[in-house]
Design goal:
globular; mainly beta; serine-type endopeptidase activity; 245 residues; six-stranded antiparallel β-barrel; Thrombin, subunit H
Length: 245
């Protein structure tokens, strides 16, 4: 798994916890100043809420479907398709080439004002098991949580050339919630350290689960020891105002 750098190049960098972190979407280059680790983790057998995000038919990020017509992902994943044109998803299968295909409705890409999170309305209702969302207090420092994504599985070539064909999951350890922990855009976040893996390019926008509830959206990773996920429990009112959940 891997958090993506922008397919057009390095989307940007932020300093998080003293480590260089970059948006977790699929990248076409590996930075020289960060030695990424592959998310070892393991392949997933079933994830009906999972969505692979494509921009102009290029796999780019990970996402989750949270309601029949609404997909949740990271803001930086849709930055190159903010009008919805060319943005699409394969939903409900662990194989990124399968699942139900849906297109974004032009003009229905909704970006939060301050956090690295976006909601996309798709062109038809998808009947599946949707990702249930957590509330404040669902995740706490010291918890071991699960991160999911189709990101990179290599360190010896561009990340875009080694995106995982099958969805993977890895455990990470929560080190902080909100406070000094922020996402790519400065929003409230859940910070975590590497467990049996760490997100990298292509995992951006993917979910973090605490138990059976989604609590985060992948935002940044140093691809070695630490990662930050948007704390979506802090943005439930915004999500509900659009998606109704």
């Amino acid at each position: 798994m891997s958090l993506v750098r922008n397919l057009a190049g390095l989307a940007g960098a932020v300093i998080a916890g003293g480590l260089l972190a970059v948006p977790a979407q699929a990248a076409d280059t590996t930075p020289q100043d960060v030695q990424p680790y592959i998310i070892d983790g393991r392949e997933v057998d079933s994830a009906p809420w999972a969505a692979r995000l494509f921009v102009n038919d290029q796999e780019t990020c990970t996402a989750s479907i949270i309601a029949p017509e609404w997909v949740l992902t990271a803001q930086h994943c849709v930055a190159d398709a903010a009008d919805g044109n060319g943005l699409s998803f394969n939903i409900g299968d662990v194989d990124q080439t399968k699942g139900e295909h849906a297109n974004a409705i032009p003009g229905e890409v909704h970006i939060h004002d301050t956090a690295d999170v976006a909601l996309v309305k798709i062109d038809h209702a998808v009947q599946t098991e949707y990702a249930p969302l957590g509330d404040a207090g669902t995740v706490n420092p010291g918890d071991t949580v699960q991160t999911y994504g189709w990101g990179a599985t290599c360190t010896d070539k561009p990340e875009i050339e080694c995106q995982a064909p099958i969805l993977k999951v890895a455990d990470v350890n929560v080190t902080g919630v909100n406070g000094d922990c922020t996402d790519y855009r400065g929003g409230q976040a859940i910070c975590a350290s590497r467990g049996d893996g760490i997100p990298a390019g292509g995992d951006s926008g993917g979910p973090m689960f605490a138990g059976d509830k989604q609590v985060g959206v992948a935002s940044t990773s140093d691809r070695a020891t630490s990662t930050a996920y948007v704390n979506i429990t802090e943005y439930r009112d915004w999500i509900s105002s659009l998606a109704g959940v």
